[in-house]
Specification:
The protein is α+β, with helices and mostly antiparallel strands. It has helices at 3-13, 19-31, 67-74, 112-133, 139-142, 151-159, 207-226, 231-246, 321-324, 338-345, 354-366, and strands at residues 35-41, 47-50, 61-62, 78-82, 85-94, 97-107, 164-166, 170-177, 185-191, 195-203, 252-260, 265-271, 275-280, 283-287, 306-309, 315-319, 375-382.
Length: 400
Amino acid sequence: MDRSAAFERELRGAAPHALLDVVTAELTERYGAEKVELRMADYAMRSLQAVGDQPGSGEPVAVHGTPQGRAFGAQEPALTRDGGHVDVHLPVTIRGDRLGVLSVRLPDDHNSQELVPELEYVCQALGHEILVAERDTDLYILARRAARLTLAAEMQWQLLPGRSCERTEFALGAHLEPAYAIFGDSYDWSVSADHLTLAIANGMGEGIEAALLSNLAINALRNARRAGLGLADQATLADQAVYSHYQGRAHVSVLLLRFDCRTGEVEAVDAGSPRMWRLRDRAVEAVPFDHQLPLGMFEDSVYTTQSFTVRPGDRLLFGSDGVYDAASPGGEPYGDRALARSLLGTTLLPPAQVPHAVLRELAGYHGESPLDDDALVICLDWYGRPGTGDAPGAAVAPGS
């Protein structure tokens, strides 16, 4: 058995809380590593928190303006030399989901650049095992917290599929603010061989009641999707679930989309307030849909789908009403003009970084007072499937 296979086997067999110990022992024995540190990105994506025996056992490192932050943001190794050693900072990312950074201190007599591919392999193996280990330990989840979550935020974060996802045909990223005290906004996605299904939800209310409502709606949508129902029927089943429980006293606004990875054709159901903007050829435009009733308002609501087409090179941005309705001190909603400027200003950023950048712009636009509502942003870049003839062509407008 070669060294890499033996390491993977040992990592898989380690106790969930001991993954970093196995990595440290391996890197110390193989390369003479003097220090190994794992940091997880916090929920607000502002700091990298050390994984340790106790929550907050190490000082956080800022995402912006630090070597670890550069590795995390650029998704590339960052090397720094100091005295007789070199620190190698490497992103820990699995299928586009950015988990954190592994930092390895090596003696400066190594050719550290040549070791980077081997260290990246270690990071990939570690990332996969972290995702599995989180079923059995709170260690890595606790490391993501720069502050205590409200109970509602705890429920919402556990509901989410991740913060980013990449595949050959697309890449997407999502972010929620305020990260530690969420109200009712949520999202979900699922990828199959030929389809991406995306849901953006905006539940009414605050606190626990909003979190319970969002959990019911998202899980009803998942239940319908996993039963093989079409998009309109998914909305109908979720609508019935919410109405059956709340009898019209509460509702959830949802935008449902199903992308065909082979053709770029998209089905959509607009059941409420989340909105979509498209950046194409340096032009930003809001994409309108026929508004249908939010889920749970009335008994036996009927939903229909619309269709449009995405082209390779399109960037789509989705926002909850906490984004486009947030007003400047002068009273102008962010969605009127400022959001389009922000989308144009972030064209060079990958989708995983766009939502956080847009929300930073939103905070500055809104002023000193805190936002009145959740702010959810999702960014999707469409690449198309290679070899399918999915070349830029005429788009089909929603409803056609």
